[in-house]
Amino acid sequence: MLTKERFTQAAQKYMDMIFRVAFSYLKSREDADDATQNVLLALYKTDKTFESFEHMKAWLIRVTVNECKKILRSPWRKRGEPLEDYENTLRFQEPRDRELYSAVMALDVKYRAVIVLYYYEGYSIRETAGLLRIPPATVGTRLARAREQLKLTLTEAERL
Amino acid sequence: MTDRERIRRALEPLHASDGTLEEVLEMIDREKTVKTMKHTGRRTVRTALIAAALVLILSVTAYAVGEHTGFFETVFGNGDIASWDTEHVTLTDEDGNVWKYDVAGQERVPVDPEDAEALVGDETASVGQSVTVQDVTFTVEDIVMDANGMGVLTYTMEDPNGFPGTEFTETGGMLTQDSGEVGTLRGATLCFADANGKEISFLDENTIVAAGGTDTRKTVAMYFAPFEGMEEAENLKLTFYVVKEHDPDATLAADVEAEGGVIFPLSQAVAVTPLTGPDGWSASISPVGLMIAPPEGNPYGQNYFFNDLAIHMTDGSEYVLKQAEPYMYNAMVGCVSEGFRTGFTFNRIIDPAQVESVTAVGEGSGYEDAGGEAVPYEDAWIDGNTLQEGLTEMHDELDLTFTK
């Protein structure tokens, strides 16, 4: 089990990543916060020893994905603030960043998850496939379809 | 600007809400378990409704007992599971912080299948429950569990296509998936629930067993320890949940496919032998696990741990479960359970009749009043949120010996 100090360090390092992955699945700030808390508690409780930061990060992503699936399969997901209200609280550098954010969030969950892991977290197609337990070809297909759907937004951003 | 940079900028504003970490730390400090989280009521209702839904769609299979030589060799080894030494690791993260720590060594002791059969054969169940997801057939084969919920089961994964997209690499004599975990594959998750379908939370460690594995068939040993819901359970149901592709706005239980289920009667679980410790501490031990319980009026809550933990046998031998120097960890799973009990699932089988004592050396921290008296953890906090005035932190060295 991690010491409290080590746990706090690790939590500070990874909680935004956990939230980002969770939000990409759940599209709800409240549910993503719940998932983040549960994942951090799992980190505190585990006696697992991590061989590297990458190992810890991959483990956290796996636990987050499982936690999100657990929440998603619930018939009583939290109905909190509308997505738009939460979006209005976010501080984007440029208006086009907000547009792209909205476009990503408008994608189906299966596309959002690969977008976050591949583009934001920088995992390769193969690593993303391993984390989501789906074949690399499926990741490639989902990325291609997501890019296609985002193409208009990305192209518009290019022009600005 | 590349697509990656654009998307990073667009998602950069997403951060965990203020106070998330503080809330988790407070929960760790003050709250009993996950179930005391602020949304307890909602989760309870939600779980109950899931239970009601699942009961309608689950089929139940009987279990059988018998000879389990192969099972015992699979999960505890017959000489082919290697031990490994402590590894000193120094890591530097991207912020330049240097982290030094030890990766625990582990000593594996091959099981004698005849001894194992004599100790837990009657309580070991053959299940045979299968579910097929995207060409992969999962089958729960055997399970043994003690009355505290510590145990191990095996399941196989068969894919006639050879698991495309999944690579398994060998580490420490075992096979694990690239990311270090097996757990779920193709969206299938093996869950525990009580007999009514209410999910029970377990920590588990899944390892792919090298022996007998082929390109199209892998055997997984899943070692587990409960941390929530076990105390109220009367029976356990093992169930494969298959999470389908989701409509993100769907709110119906139809999103879940629960494939079959097998009830494991806790009356068939391996009995535990009670041990008595000093100052109200107690423990219970079985051939597959150890549970240590703090005394009533526990001043530490969850904030106690053991650096050195050993089981001493009557023949003078010992099973070192944890050791600080060099760092050894000879349990498969360990966690803090309900009632702040600490449980460990063994990486071997022992005979409780041959146990002379259990020694545990560590430390605990809590609060004491102005008179220097330790305050029970539950009483130190008002409404679970505010620390009583006049209390100061205290730290105790723990040096406990448990005997029958």
Strand content of chain B: 35-45%
Task: Give the CA-CA distance, first to last residue of chain B.
Answer: 69 Å
Read across the widest sheet of chain B, the strand sequence of neighbours is 1-4-5-6-11-10-9-12-13
Give the C-alpha Rg of chain A: 16 Å
Number of strands of chain B: 25
What's the overall average pLDDT of chain A, rounded? 81
Helix and strand pattern of chain A = HHHHHHHH
Separation of the first and last Cα atoms of chain A = 50 Å
Structural class of chain A: mainly alpha
Number of helices, counting only DSSP H or I runs of 4 residues or more of chain B: 6
- How many discrete structural domains of chain B? 2
Estimated structural class of chain B: mainly beta
The number of domains of chain A is 2
Number of helices of chain A: 8
Task: Summarize the SSE layout with pairings.
The complex is a heterodimer of chains A (160) and B (404).
Chain A: H1 4-26, H2 29-45, H3 53-72, H4 83-89, H5 95-105, H6 109-120, H7 125-132, H8 136-159
Helix pairs in contact in A: 1-2, 1-3, 1-6, 2-3, 5-8, 6-8, 7-8
Chain B: H1 3-11, H2 20-30, H3 40-57, E1 64-65, H4 69-76, E2 87-92, E3 98-103, H5 113-120, E4 125-133, E5 136-145, E6 151-158, E7 168-171, E8 174-177, E9 188-194, E10 199-209, E11 217-228, E12 235-243, E13 256-265, E14 273-276, E15 282-285, E16 289-293, E17 304-313, E18 318-323, E19 328-329, E20 331-336, E21 342-346, E22 355-368, H6 377-380, E23 381-382, E24 386-387, E25 392-402
Antiparallel strand pairs in B: 1-4, 2-3, 4-5, 5-6, 6-11, 7-8, 9-10, 9-12, 10-11, 12-13, 14-15, 15-16, 16-21, 17-18, 17-22, 18-19, 20-21, 22-25, 23-24
